[in-house]
Amino acid sequence: MTEDVQVIFTPSGKRGRVARGTRVLAAARKLGVDLDSVCGGRGVCSKCQCTPSFGDFPKLGLHVEPGAVSPINAVEERYDRIRGLKPGRRLGCQTEILDDVVIDVPPESQVHKQVVRKAASERVMEMDPATRPVYVEVAEPDMHRPEGDLQRLSQALEKQWQIKGVRADLDVLRILQPALRKADWKVTVAIHDAGDGPRVTGIFPGVREVPLYGLAIDLGSTTIAGHLVALDDGRVLASAGVMNPQIRFGEDLMSRVSYVMMNPGGDQEMTNAVRDAMGDLARQLAEEAKVETGEIVEAVVVCNPVMHHLLLGIDPVELGQAPFALATSESLEFAAREIGIEASAGARAYILPLIAGHVGADAAAVALSEAPQKRDDLSLIVDVGTNAEIILGNKQRVLACSSPTGPAFEGAQISSGQRAAPGAIERIEIDPETKEPRFKIIGNEHWSTDPEFGTPRITGICGSGIIEAVAEMRMAGIVDTSGLIGSAEQVGTPRCEPNGRTHEYVIYDGGEEGPRITVTQGDIRAIQLAKSALYAGARLLMDEMGVDTVDRVVLAGAFGAHISPKHAMVLGMIPDAPLDRVTSAGNAAGTGAHMALCSVKARREIEAQVHQITKVETAIEPRFQEHFVAANALPHATAPFPELRKIAPLPEVSFNTGGSGEDGGRRRRRRG
Amino acid sequence: MTEDVQVIFTPSGKRGRVARGTRVLAAARKLGVDLDSVCGGRGVCSKCQCTPSFGDFPKLGLHVEPGAVSPINAVEERYDRIRGLKPGRRLGCQTEILDDVVIDVPPESQVHKQVVRKAASERVMEMDPATRPVYVEVAEPDMHRPEGDLQRLSQALEKQWQIKGVRADLDVLRILQPALRKADWKVTVAIHDAGDGPRVTGIFPGVREVPLYGLAIDLGSTTIAGHLVALDDGRVLASAGVMNPQIRFGEDLMSRVSYVMMNPGGDQEMTNAVRDAMGDLARQLAEEAKVETGEIVEAVVVCNPVMHHLLLGIDPVELGQAPFALATSESLEFAAREIGIEASAGARAYILPLIAGHVGADAAAVALSEAPQKRDDLSLIVDVGTNAEIILGNKQRVLACSSPTGPAFEGAQISSGQRAAPGAIERIEIDPETKEPRFKIIGNEHWSTDPEFGTPRITGICGSGIIEAVAEMRMAGIVDTSGLIGSAEQVGTPRCEPNGRTHEYVIYDGGEEGPRITVTQGDIRAIQLAKSALYAGARLLMDEMGVDTVDRVVLAGAFGAHISPKHAMVLGMIPDAPLDRVTSAGNAAGTGAHMALCSVKARREIEAQVHQITKVETAIEPRFQEHFVAANALPHATAPFPELRKIAPLPEVSFNTGGSGEDGGRRRRRRG
Questions:
Q1: Locate the 2Fe-2S ferredoxin-type domain: which residues (chains A, B) (predicted)?
Q2: Which of A141, A222, A442, A536 has the fewest C-beta atoms under 10 angstroms from its C-beta?
Q3: Which alpha helices (DSSP H) does A508-665 contain, by range?
Q4: A121: pLDDT strictly greater than 60
Q5: From the list A143, A313, A317, which residue is nearest B170 (CB)?
Q6: Are B328 and A173 in contact (CB < 8 Å)?
Q7: What is the distance of C-alpha B368 from the center of its chain?
Q8: Same domain, yes or no, for A194 and A220?
Q9: More confident of the two residues B559 and A229
Q10: Residue B316 DSSP one-character state
Q11: Nearest CB partner across the interface for B149, out of A326, A359, A617
């Protein structure tokens, strides 16, 4: 036997020679094999688990003897007794290589692993986190050696982990001394390095056996949705949403920009409000996941440009007027506390790049998660929200725009509208013959007509519910192509009741105890405005791309997963397409935030990608207005929607009496 | 004539060939010659002034024809008319090189110039500032190009100045949009680069013709002294001091640390107090120099470790107990606003490294300005303050310690003590025969016995005044070697009046209108405690160095310049030395801060130097106590002080009656 032995790691295939007696973890480090470790080889964290393989490996040209590695030692025995080791598994930091050997590194022992996440899309999540935990033992201070605690920590990181020149901001310096002393100088340090050098972003006592956590936040105009994510494998431990408290300053983006213009200091009020909400969200997520906010070491935020500026404390006034100049369009990293997030001392926040003055980091996140630029077919991705982001593209070219749909799709500005919460109507069907409805509410799996439905409290209609309600009314002939609700006589149901000079359709009447849930003419108008804006934006991109159809449509957005593709198409929210090519991507912006949180590589990818996206400006494009007007009809005044007509009845009714009623002469003044 | 011509720059001697017609500024940049420019060659800032030389230059091997440079052009004519150009001077950005030429760059046109400052030491100030102003013209936003304002600024800096990858923190992003628009996209940007890459730290409209400003701050336990400095040539435009408001939490450092220990949250109270004072100081300096605080783009702070931690918001409790561990000992840079300094958005603050737990950035600053490590002779540098820093060293070795002298030297804890302000007695002489005093007060150049003295308001005694008073009392035989004040009979003057069981010496009696200014026995004791601590610290370093004498003594400190070396030696504040080898360096810590403000090179120098300084810990050294006790006598119980005896009478009086009077048996219990 020679003094050097050969070791081959699978699945990487990395191989090399090491001195006999070298431990597997040390061999992996020497050969650049991705084998995790938090404790630095002290046999406590168990992250370096691996499986030595024995026998013949003809493809690798190797025969491995049973004694090629040292026998299980006391540390491993103890670990197995307390925590359990899978059969064949060894701790890499305890196992010595005694002869030529093949060692398999299972996915969970890799730092840069690929993990399939149970998201709407069963997405493969690439793990390349900016932050990792490392255990260090720090030298105690000595009166005769004047270095500070930070310097001794830094020396320990260099010696024990080869992490050089670590930085710490003042927040970390503030907690450093008590943290080290309380933990008796043995700590797990969160080290953040997104390519700009290592930085301490958290200090935890002893060997940290649970992961570090991060937040992926989709800051919308109406709701702020967040996930609390484990940074070792990217799993979501808690999800929550809070209302964006800026709503009190204006429901949509432009009314908030106006508020700033009219009220000096209004930007600061809104900045404070949204930062408070970010703090609330962080606390809520931590509580739900049963972790401390101090265990959150990183956050990734996506949002539209106005939210971006207001979150960062930048006056958004320039975004309210042409040429819609951003203060900065590139990604940013800063201390998480600067945007109100309660997390570890030193925790960092990353915000994705913006595509343009109207197309934000949320759209960039959608581009990251849906990646139309990697596909041959032409994808139309619609992120539905108060401000909709629309992306159209394929491998050749990607276009993006935003469209001010307003908050109707989120249940706001709707007479019986409400947030998606238990008691809200989320599904509805109307019998085309009887015009009678049945519905489902959130928190109850039965239709309202089933005996099992019981007598739950019914509170209102949420965003997906109102979309279905209007579409079903259209298919049942209760609403005509112009959006007008017919009278009881015209439609043939007493559920169409007069309401002033128009009519409303009664979905549910709770009697004296209430509530009475109806779809009013005003509700239809609000939905028409919103869906016209959405359609017009998509159509503008199609013009720019020079196409009349798309290969697939992806509905994204915080409640994108809840929208029925068929109903969306009946409304004409999206261009006509075969129904099986209309899918939902769930909260694609949130997914993009989640991906960026788990992977520095993903951040670099989208930072490069945004420069390749052509931004189309809806606000100054005359054709937008034309498309908008033509899109007011249900589903559309001119577009034929052949695919839709194959699957949905669209009765040719008309309730316009030509008289003085609502809407008498307001529609279709122009054609696109 | 060839197409290339030779150009030689003096005094650098840098030479090379450039294309005929190249402008001098461009030639200088090409050849790496240090020729300043703010406007980037637009003929408005005049920083690039230079003098073409004509005739024979045998040493350079060159003959320069009169037509070697282009004639004065319209831009230069206009500049000369409005601002005036010295004879022979040209604007380097306007002057074309037409033939072989020698061009002299005067010191004021160099960025990295050496400037002799009128400080106590006529110091040569090396200019190598971290921040420089650059004028850029930024592209306006274009709806069809989505980059943000920061990206267009960054592109302009790269194109016009070859400054790549400039960073801007959120504070700068907040002001960027209005600043660019108000200035019509033509701005002078303060670019900070201390070796870690360029960063925007200020934005000013148009071509900035006045310099950028910085603050050099010496944060003492009792007073905070600051200079407002022009960053082009390092001159001081304003100096001011404010009291450290932390005094209300404790007069000396240890009582402040105790305050924190006794009062949870007390550190935050003190942090807030000192940051408020930093803000006040910045505003006061700006007002005095008639500049806006927003024109201050940088600050350098020196201070002792406890002040350091409290300023940064770090609990100083570890500094109150062995082993006196610092949270961090290295230099730090961060946003100036983090420590309460009102300055430009993005302004940076730099804090010098600390030498050890008791020997701070102020001592490092003294080491920087006095540089004992560059001298052959052995220097003892004493920075007098509430906490004294003492440095002993030469080229071979440098030692440092700190000593808790208390605030007596600053006039605190003295019965008639006051801050150095108009009306305070600062000089005093006592006739050894008549025991009659004469004195000078701040704001009046005459002795109190001169008719021209008039009848000014006399308010108290400042720090230097009390030192002189006690020393003069010792030389006049009013105080004995043990520090006891004699009675009227013992001394032979009615000015020695009884005060309880001891006596006091009346310097001035304002009658009914007051005040009555005396030196009490308690005052003498306070001075004795302070000076013993100082001497014991110095002596401890001498022991460590293995010497009994030093070659020179430098008195430093905020009022170091005001202390009379002779009187200091009579008190035994400092070890015996030839009087002409005892000098005053003024506020050496402040000078060190000033140097670090003007020069990145100086920062790197002291950062390296502190690692070479051996720290001696006074608090745990038993000999410190011995030295302290022996130093209680005036000048000393055992040290002979031969040099002092050559120049000052030290009458062998003794007022100890051995009875029940104060001090009857308290002194010299031990010998070192």
A1: 3-109
A2: A442
A3: 521-545, 565-571, 588-598, 600-610, 622-630, 642-647
A4: no
A5: A313
A6: yes
A7: 10
A8: no
A9: A229
A10: G
A11: A326
CB spacing of A327 vs B170 below 8 angstroms:
no
State whether B77 and B124 are in the same domain: no
CA angle in degrees (0–180, nearest 5) for B531-B532-B536:
120
- Report the candidate in B235, B236, B226, B230 with the shortest Cα–Cα distance to residue B274: B226
User: What is the per-residue pLDDT for A419?
Assistant: 76
The answer to whether the beta carbons of residues B415 and B391 sit under 8 Å apart is no
Residues A531, A393 share a domain: yes
Residues B418 and B491 in one domain: yes
| Interchain CB distance below 8 Å, B323 and A149 | no
| H helix intervals, B413-520 | 463-475, 488-491
Domain that holds residue A152: 114-205
* Of the partner residues A146, A169, A173, the one whose CB lies closest to the CB of residue B327: A173
Does the distance separating the beta carbons of A148 and B354 come in below 8 Å?
yes
Interface test with A, best of B147, B612, B624 (most A CBs within 10 A): B147
Q: What's the pLDDT score for residue A421?
A: 80
Radius of gyration from C-alpha coordinates of chain A: 29
- Under an 8 A CB cutoff, do B323 and A173 touch? no
B628 within domain boundaries: no
H or E stretch at A270: helix A266-289
Distance CA A665, CA A659 (A): 9
Q: Is the pLDDT of residue A60 over 90?
A: no
A148–B330 CB contact, under 8 Å: yes
Residues of chain B falling short of pLDDT 50 = 118-121, 660-672
Determine, for residues A329 and B620 on separate chains, whether the beta-carbon distance falls below 8 Å. Answer: no
Alpha-carbon span B79 to B380, nearest angstrom? 52
- A329 and B148 within 8 Å at the Cβ level: the answer is yes
Cα separation, B379 vs B554, in Å, equals: 7
Instruction: State how far the Cα of B273 lies from the Cα of B256, in Å rounded to an integer.
Output: 12
A49 and A104 assigned to the same domain: yes
Length in residues, chain B: 672
- Domain contains B53: yes
> For testing the chain A interface, which of B170, B196, B609 should be mutated: the one with the most A CBs within 10 Å?
B170
A146, A169, A355: residue with CB nearest B355: A146
Total number of domains in chain A: 5
Query: Which one, of B307, B413, B324, lies nearest residue B360 by Cα?
Result: B307
Position with higher pLDDT, B514 vs A548: A548
Are A165 and A226 members of one domain?
no
Alpha carbon separation from A542 to A228, A391, A565, A567 (Å, rounded): 37, 10, 20, 22
Q: How is A50-70 classified by DSSP, letter by letter?
A: EEEE-EEETTTTEEE-TTSBP
Q: Cβ B146–A356 below 8 Å, yes or no?
A: yes
B243 and B139 assigned to the same domain? no
Distance from CA of A585 to the nearest CA of B (A): 27
Give the domain-ending residue among B74, B109, B144: B109
Q: What is the pLDDT of residues A1-30, one digit of tens each?
A: 568 999 999 888 889 999 999 999 999 988
Pair (B218, B194) in one structural domain: no
Q: What is the CATH number of the domain that holds A159?
A: 3.10.20.880
Chain B, nearest residue to A180 by Cα: B327
Q: Following DSSP, what letter does each residue of A150-175 receive, concatenated?
A: HHHHHHHHHHHH---S-B--HHHHHH
Cβ–Cβ gap A141/B314 under 8 Å: no
Query: Which of B109, B128, B150 lies at the terminal end of a domain, its last residue?
Result: B109
Q: How many residues does chain A have?
A: 672
Contacts with A168 from chain B: Cβ below 8 Å: 328
ipTM of this complex: 0.82
Rounded to whole angstroms, the Cα distance separating B104 from B20 reads 19
Chain B interface disruption, residue of A173, A181, A613, most B CBs within 10 A: A173
